[in-house]
UniProtKB/TrEMBL annotation:
NCBIfam families assigned: egtD_ergothio
Matches recorded under Gene3D superfamilies: Vaccinia Virus protein VP39 (3.40.50.150)
Keywords, alphabetical: Methyltransferase, Transferase
PANTHER family for the chain: ERGOTHIONEINE BIOSYNTHESIS PROTEIN 1 (PTHR43397)
Cross-referenced InterPro entries: EgtD (IPR035094), EgtD_Methyltrsf_superfamily (IPR051128), MeTrfase_dom (IPR019257), MeTrfase_EgtD-like (IPR017804), SAM-dependent_MTases_sf (IPR029063)
Protein name, as recorded: Histidine-specific methyltransferase SAM-dependent domain-containing protein
Amino acid sequence: SQMTTIKQCSINISISNCEFLTDVISGLTQQQKSLPCKYFYDDKGAALFEQITRLQEYYVTRTELAILERYSKEIAQILPESLSIIEPGCGSGKKIAHLLAHMSKVKTFVPFEISTEMLNYSLAHLSPLFPELVIAPLLGDFTDSAMVKQLIKETALNSQTNLVYFPGSTLGNFNTLKAIEIMRNFQHLCGVNGYVLIGIDLVKQRQVLLDAYDDKLGVTAAFNKNLLQRINDELNGSFNLANFNHESRYNEQHNRIEMHLVSLCEQTVVINNQQINFKQGESIHTENSHKYTLESFKQLAAQANLSLEQTWQDDNNYFALCLLRP
Ligand code: AVJ
Protein backbone atom coordinates (compact mmCIF):
# COMPACT_ATOMS: atom_id res chain seq x y z
CA SER A 1 0.00 0.00 0.00
CA GLN A 2 0.92 3.68 -0.30
CA MET A 3 1.71 3.95 3.44
CA THR A 4 4.22 1.12 3.57
CA THR A 5 5.87 2.33 0.37
CA ILE A 6 6.48 5.77 1.81
CA LYS A 7 7.64 4.43 5.18
CA GLN A 8 10.35 2.36 3.49
CA CYS A 9 11.91 5.45 1.96
CA SER A 10 14.61 7.22 3.87
CA ILE A 11 14.56 11.01 3.80
CA ASN A 12 17.43 11.33 1.34
CA ILE A 13 15.58 9.40 -1.38
CA SER A 14 12.88 11.27 -3.23
CA ILE A 15 9.32 9.95 -3.13
CA SER A 16 9.40 9.35 -6.88
CA ASN A 17 12.12 6.74 -6.31
CA CYS A 18 10.00 4.78 -3.85
CA GLU A 19 8.73 2.38 -6.48
CA PHE A 20 12.27 1.83 -7.73
CA LEU A 21 13.49 1.17 -4.18
CA THR A 22 10.60 -1.16 -3.38
CA ASP A 23 11.17 -3.12 -6.62
CA VAL A 24 14.93 -3.34 -6.02
CA ILE A 25 14.66 -4.54 -2.42
CA SER A 26 11.89 -6.98 -3.28
CA GLY A 27 13.88 -8.39 -6.20
CA LEU A 28 17.12 -8.73 -4.27
CA THR A 29 15.51 -10.49 -1.31
CA GLN A 30 14.14 -13.38 -3.42
CA GLN A 31 15.77 -16.80 -3.52
CA GLN A 32 16.83 -16.13 -7.14
CA LYS A 33 17.77 -12.46 -6.98
CA SER A 34 16.33 -10.38 -9.81
CA LEU A 35 15.84 -6.78 -10.94
CA PRO A 36 13.14 -5.49 -13.34
CA CYS A 37 14.62 -4.75 -16.76
CA LYS A 38 12.48 -1.63 -17.16
CA TYR A 39 14.99 0.18 -14.92
CA PHE A 40 17.81 -0.24 -17.47
CA TYR A 41 16.72 2.85 -19.34
CA ASP A 42 17.95 5.90 -17.45
CA ASP A 43 19.79 8.45 -19.64
CA LYS A 44 23.03 6.48 -19.50
CA GLY A 45 21.23 3.17 -20.09
CA ALA A 46 19.25 4.54 -23.04
CA ALA A 47 22.52 5.79 -24.59
CA LEU A 48 24.13 2.38 -24.05
CA PHE A 49 21.14 0.67 -25.65
CA GLU A 50 21.55 2.97 -28.67
CA GLN A 51 25.13 1.71 -28.90
CA ILE A 52 23.93 -1.90 -28.62
CA THR A 53 21.66 -1.41 -31.63
CA ARG A 54 24.74 -0.60 -33.73
CA LEU A 55 26.83 -3.59 -32.57
CA GLN A 56 27.97 -6.22 -35.04
CA GLU A 57 26.57 -9.04 -32.85
CA TYR A 58 23.22 -7.37 -32.15
CA TYR A 59 21.37 -8.16 -35.37
CA VAL A 60 17.93 -7.28 -33.95
CA THR A 61 17.50 -3.59 -34.73
CA ARG A 62 19.17 -3.53 -38.13
CA THR A 63 17.32 -6.66 -39.25
CA GLU A 64 13.93 -5.26 -38.29
CA LEU A 65 14.71 -1.98 -40.04
CA ALA A 66 15.76 -3.83 -43.18
CA ILE A 67 12.49 -5.79 -43.18
CA LEU A 68 10.57 -2.57 -42.74
CA GLU A 69 12.46 -0.84 -45.53
CA ARG A 70 11.95 -3.77 -47.88
CA TYR A 71 8.27 -4.42 -47.22
CA SER A 72 6.73 -1.20 -45.93
CA LYS A 73 5.18 -0.48 -49.38
CA GLU A 74 3.58 -3.92 -49.35
CA ILE A 75 2.41 -3.48 -45.77
CA ALA A 76 1.03 -0.02 -46.57
CA GLN A 77 -1.02 -1.48 -49.44
CA ILE A 78 -2.78 -3.92 -47.13
CA LEU A 79 -3.83 -1.22 -44.69
CA PRO A 80 -6.96 0.95 -45.21
CA GLU A 81 -7.00 4.59 -46.32
CA SER A 82 -7.69 6.55 -43.20
CA LEU A 83 -5.63 5.03 -40.47
CA SER A 84 -4.27 6.07 -37.12
CA ILE A 85 -1.11 4.53 -35.77
CA ILE A 86 -0.77 3.96 -32.03
CA GLU A 87 2.70 3.16 -30.74
CA PRO A 88 2.80 1.88 -27.18
CA GLY A 89 6.11 2.67 -25.48
CA CYS A 90 7.19 4.83 -28.44
CA GLY A 91 9.98 6.45 -26.41
CA SER A 92 11.57 9.31 -28.31
CA GLY A 93 9.53 8.51 -31.43
CA LYS A 94 12.52 7.65 -33.58
CA LYS A 95 11.36 4.24 -34.79
CA ILE A 96 7.98 5.36 -36.05
CA ALA A 97 9.63 7.85 -38.41
CA HIS A 98 10.73 4.94 -40.61
CA LEU A 99 7.21 3.54 -40.89
CA LEU A 100 5.59 6.95 -41.37
CA ALA A 101 8.01 7.81 -44.15
CA HIS A 102 6.46 4.98 -46.19
CA MET A 103 2.85 5.47 -45.19
CA SER A 104 1.32 8.59 -46.65
CA LYS A 105 -2.20 7.39 -45.73
CA VAL A 106 -1.62 7.82 -42.04
CA LYS A 107 -3.62 10.75 -40.71
CA THR A 108 -2.92 10.53 -36.99
CA PHE A 109 -0.10 9.28 -34.87
CA VAL A 110 -0.78 8.44 -31.24
CA PRO A 111 2.43 8.14 -29.20
CA PHE A 112 1.50 6.18 -26.07
CA GLU A 113 4.05 6.65 -23.31
CA ILE A 114 4.39 6.52 -19.56
CA SER A 115 6.84 9.43 -19.55
CA THR A 116 5.62 12.99 -20.20
CA GLU A 117 9.16 13.99 -21.06
CA MET A 118 9.38 11.33 -23.79
CA LEU A 119 5.94 12.32 -25.12
CA ASN A 120 7.00 15.95 -25.43
CA TYR A 121 10.24 14.89 -27.05
CA SER A 122 8.50 12.69 -29.63
CA LEU A 123 6.10 15.53 -30.43
CA ALA A 124 8.94 18.01 -30.94
CA HIS A 125 10.93 15.53 -33.01
CA LEU A 126 8.12 14.29 -35.28
CA SER A 127 6.05 17.38 -36.04
CA PRO A 128 8.73 19.13 -38.14
CA LEU A 129 9.39 15.85 -40.03
CA PHE A 130 5.69 15.27 -40.78
CA PRO A 131 3.97 18.67 -40.83
CA GLU A 132 0.69 17.22 -42.17
CA LEU A 133 0.44 14.57 -39.50
CA VAL A 134 -1.87 15.01 -36.52
CA ILE A 135 -0.03 13.92 -33.39
CA ALA A 136 -2.32 13.02 -30.49
CA PRO A 137 -0.25 11.95 -27.47
CA LEU A 138 -1.62 9.51 -24.93
CA LEU A 139 -0.10 9.43 -21.45
CA GLY A 140 -0.20 6.08 -19.72
CA ASP A 141 1.18 2.61 -19.07
CA PHE A 142 0.31 0.16 -21.87
CA THR A 143 1.08 -2.82 -19.60
CA ASP A 144 -1.66 -1.73 -17.18
CA SER A 145 -4.91 -3.25 -18.49
CA ALA A 146 -7.23 -1.24 -16.24
CA MET A 147 -5.57 1.95 -17.42
CA VAL A 148 -5.84 0.94 -21.08
CA LYS A 149 -9.59 0.21 -20.66
CA GLN A 150 -10.07 3.59 -19.01
CA LEU A 151 -8.15 5.38 -21.76
CA ILE A 152 -10.24 3.65 -24.44
CA LYS A 153 -13.40 4.79 -22.69
CA GLU A 154 -12.19 8.38 -22.44
CA THR A 155 -10.83 8.69 -25.97
CA ALA A 156 -13.10 6.33 -27.94
CA LEU A 157 -9.93 5.34 -29.78
CA ASN A 158 -11.34 1.90 -30.53
CA SER A 159 -14.24 3.35 -32.55
CA GLN A 160 -11.81 4.16 -35.36
CA THR A 161 -9.47 1.94 -37.34
CA ASN A 162 -6.06 1.84 -35.74
CA LEU A 163 -2.78 0.14 -36.32
CA VAL A 164 -1.07 -0.71 -33.05
CA TYR A 165 2.63 -0.77 -33.83
CA PHE A 166 4.93 -2.56 -31.36
CA PRO A 167 8.39 -3.02 -32.86
CA GLY A 168 11.77 -4.00 -31.42
CA SER A 169 10.78 -7.36 -29.95
CA THR A 170 9.96 -5.55 -26.72
CA LEU A 171 7.20 -8.12 -26.18
CA GLY A 172 10.00 -10.63 -25.53
CA ASN A 173 10.83 -8.91 -22.24
CA PHE A 174 7.55 -10.08 -20.71
CA ASN A 175 6.63 -13.53 -19.45
CA THR A 176 3.96 -15.45 -21.36
CA LEU A 177 1.00 -14.38 -19.22
CA LYS A 178 1.95 -10.72 -19.30
CA ALA A 179 2.66 -10.87 -23.05
CA ILE A 180 -0.87 -12.21 -23.61
CA GLU A 181 -2.33 -9.50 -21.39
CA ILE A 182 -0.43 -6.82 -23.31
CA MET A 183 -1.58 -8.21 -26.66
CA ARG A 184 -5.17 -8.20 -25.35
CA ASN A 185 -4.70 -4.52 -24.58
CA PHE A 186 -3.55 -4.02 -28.17
CA GLN A 187 -6.55 -5.97 -29.46
CA HIS A 188 -8.84 -3.59 -27.56
CA LEU A 189 -6.90 -0.52 -28.68
CA CYS A 190 -6.89 -1.30 -32.40
CA GLY A 191 -10.69 -1.48 -32.76
CA VAL A 192 -12.77 -4.24 -34.41
CA ASN A 193 -11.47 -3.47 -37.89
CA GLY A 194 -7.98 -2.63 -36.73
CA TYR A 195 -4.53 -4.11 -37.05
CA VAL A 196 -1.61 -4.92 -34.79
CA LEU A 197 1.95 -4.99 -36.16
CA ILE A 198 4.47 -6.60 -33.84
CA GLY A 199 8.19 -7.22 -34.29
CA ILE A 200 9.40 -10.50 -32.81
CA ASP A 201 12.82 -12.05 -32.52
CA LEU A 202 12.89 -15.65 -33.79
CA VAL A 203 14.50 -18.76 -32.29
CA LYS A 204 17.89 -19.33 -33.94
CA GLN A 205 21.31 -20.90 -33.33
CA ARG A 206 22.20 -20.66 -29.69
CA GLN A 207 25.59 -19.05 -30.23
CA VAL A 208 24.16 -16.25 -32.37
CA LEU A 209 21.78 -15.43 -29.52
CA LEU A 210 24.41 -15.69 -26.80
CA ASP A 211 26.77 -13.38 -28.72
CA ALA A 212 24.03 -10.83 -29.40
CA TYR A 213 23.69 -10.39 -25.64
CA ASP A 214 27.40 -10.60 -24.81
CA ASP A 215 29.31 -8.56 -27.38
CA LYS A 216 33.09 -8.40 -27.74
CA LEU A 217 33.28 -4.67 -27.02
CA GLY A 218 31.49 -5.16 -23.70
CA VAL A 219 28.71 -2.66 -24.39
CA THR A 220 26.00 -5.08 -23.25
CA ALA A 221 28.02 -5.79 -20.09
CA ALA A 222 28.18 -2.05 -19.42
CA PHE A 223 24.43 -1.76 -20.11
CA ASN A 224 23.72 -4.56 -17.61
CA LYS A 225 26.08 -3.21 -14.94
CA ASN A 226 24.70 0.31 -15.34
CA LEU A 227 21.66 -0.91 -13.44
CA LEU A 228 23.89 -1.38 -10.37
CA GLN A 229 25.34 2.10 -10.90
CA ARG A 230 21.83 3.50 -11.06
CA ILE A 231 21.02 1.83 -7.73
CA ASN A 232 24.20 3.35 -6.27
CA ASP A 233 23.32 6.81 -7.56
CA GLU A 234 19.60 6.93 -6.90
CA LEU A 235 19.13 4.60 -3.94
CA ASN A 236 22.34 5.06 -1.98
CA GLY A 237 23.68 1.69 -3.03
CA SER A 238 27.20 0.41 -2.37
CA PHE A 239 27.64 -1.94 -5.35
CA ASN A 240 31.24 -2.37 -6.49
CA LEU A 241 30.67 -2.95 -10.21
CA ALA A 242 34.05 -4.69 -10.54
CA ASN A 243 32.75 -7.45 -8.24
CA PHE A 244 30.13 -8.55 -10.80
CA ASN A 245 30.39 -10.29 -14.14
CA HIS A 246 27.94 -9.91 -17.01
CA GLU A 247 26.57 -13.20 -18.40
CA SER A 248 24.11 -14.09 -21.15
CA ARG A 249 22.47 -17.51 -20.78
CA TYR A 250 20.07 -19.35 -23.04
CA ASN A 251 17.15 -20.92 -21.19
CA GLU A 252 16.10 -23.86 -23.41
CA GLN A 253 12.94 -24.58 -21.45
CA HIS A 254 11.49 -21.10 -21.97
CA ASN A 255 13.22 -20.24 -25.26
CA ARG A 256 14.69 -17.08 -23.87
CA ILE A 257 17.96 -15.26 -23.42
CA GLU A 258 18.56 -14.32 -19.82
CA MET A 259 20.98 -11.68 -18.66
CA HIS A 260 22.60 -12.12 -15.27
CA LEU A 261 25.09 -10.28 -13.10
CA VAL A 262 27.20 -12.85 -11.29
CA SER A 263 28.88 -12.05 -7.98
CA LEU A 264 32.62 -12.77 -8.24
CA CYS A 265 33.04 -13.14 -4.47
CA GLU A 266 31.16 -13.41 -1.23
CA GLN A 267 30.08 -9.85 -0.49
CA THR A 268 27.57 -7.62 1.25
CA VAL A 269 25.98 -4.67 -0.50
CA VAL A 270 24.07 -1.94 1.35
CA ILE A 271 21.09 -0.27 -0.32
CA ASN A 272 19.41 2.52 1.59
CA ASN A 273 20.61 1.00 4.89
CA GLN A 274 19.52 -2.53 4.01
CA GLN A 275 22.15 -5.26 3.72
CA ILE A 276 22.06 -7.72 0.84
CA ASN A 277 24.39 -10.73 0.99
CA PHE A 278 25.88 -12.46 -2.04
CA LYS A 279 27.59 -15.81 -2.22
CA GLN A 280 30.38 -16.25 -4.74
CA GLY A 281 28.80 -17.26 -8.07
CA GLU A 282 25.31 -16.14 -7.05
CA SER A 283 23.54 -14.17 -9.77
CA ILE A 284 21.07 -11.35 -10.16
CA HIS A 285 18.71 -12.15 -13.04
CA THR A 286 18.22 -8.81 -14.82
CA GLU A 287 16.43 -9.54 -18.10
CA ASN A 288 14.49 -12.07 -20.15
CA SER A 289 14.33 -11.79 -23.91
CA HIS A 290 11.94 -14.42 -25.25
CA LYS A 291 12.47 -15.85 -28.73
CA TYR A 292 9.56 -17.22 -30.76
CA THR A 293 8.84 -19.48 -33.68
CA LEU A 294 6.10 -18.29 -36.04
CA GLU A 295 4.00 -21.14 -34.67
CA SER A 296 4.59 -20.35 -30.99
CA PHE A 297 3.85 -16.68 -31.64
CA LYS A 298 0.67 -17.54 -33.52
CA GLN A 299 -0.54 -19.52 -30.53
CA LEU A 300 0.39 -16.76 -28.11
CA ALA A 301 -1.53 -14.23 -30.21
CA ALA A 302 -4.55 -16.53 -30.42
CA GLN A 303 -4.80 -16.39 -26.63
CA ALA A 304 -5.17 -12.63 -26.99
CA ASN A 305 -7.90 -13.10 -29.63
CA LEU A 306 -5.60 -11.94 -32.38
CA SER A 307 -5.08 -13.96 -35.53
CA LEU A 308 -1.84 -13.91 -37.44
CA GLU A 309 -2.58 -12.63 -40.96
CA GLN A 310 0.82 -12.21 -42.51
CA THR A 311 4.51 -12.19 -41.63
CA TRP A 312 7.61 -10.65 -43.20
CA GLN A 313 11.10 -11.94 -42.45
CA ASP A 314 14.73 -11.35 -43.40
CA ASP A 315 16.66 -13.87 -45.54
CA ASN A 316 18.22 -15.51 -42.45
CA ASN A 317 14.84 -15.85 -40.71
CA TYR A 318 16.26 -14.03 -37.70
CA PHE A 319 13.36 -11.65 -37.16
CA ALA A 320 9.70 -11.33 -38.15
CA LEU A 321 7.24 -8.49 -38.54
CA CYS A 322 3.81 -9.93 -37.80
CA LEU A 323 0.48 -8.46 -38.86
CA LEU A 324 -2.41 -9.49 -36.63
CA ARG A 325 -6.16 -8.79 -36.62
CA PRO A 326 -8.91 -9.30 -34.05
C1 AVJ B 1 14.92 -3.61 -26.17
C2 AVJ B 1 14.01 -5.50 -25.10
C3 AVJ B 1 14.33 -5.52 -27.44
O1 AVJ B 1 15.78 -7.85 -25.47
O2 AVJ B 1 16.92 -7.54 -27.28
C4 AVJ B 1 19.41 -5.64 -25.73
C5 AVJ B 1 17.02 -5.21 -24.81
N1 AVJ B 1 19.03 -6.22 -23.71
N2 AVJ B 1 20.53 -6.19 -25.24
C6 AVJ B 1 16.35 -7.11 -26.27
C7 AVJ B 1 18.45 -5.68 -24.77
C8 AVJ B 1 20.30 -6.52 -24.01
C9 AVJ B 1 16.30 -5.59 -26.06
N3 AVJ B 1 14.90 -5.07 -26.16
